[in-house]
Design brief:
54% helix; 78 residues; 5 helices
Length: 78
């Protein structure tokens, strides 16, 4: 759990997705319940920009030509 704290305190985004669209929470084995519970607790406080990026992704909104490259990359990671 210490590494989760280090990542969280360093500004890591636990809602970034991998190439298959999965967040870290979805990759934890069910047998590791304590880690799953702790990560859910840490993810509970999310930034507004992360929530907005996820909403754009979930609603399949077209954004590629509307934002800068860095913002487009940020949205794609959510």
């Amino acid at each position: 759990m210490m590494i989760i704290n280090i990542l969280c305190n360093s500004g890591a985004h636990f809602d970034h997705v991998n190439n298959q669209g999965q967040i870290p929470l979805e990759l934890i084995q069910v047998s590791q319940y304590e880690i799953m519970r702790y990560l859910k607790e840490k993810m509970g406080v999310r930034r507004l920009k992360c929530i907005c990026a996820r909403l754009i992704q979930n609603e399949c909104l077209r954004y590629e030509n509307c934002f800068s490259t860095s913002l487009t990359d940020f949205i794609q990671k959510h």
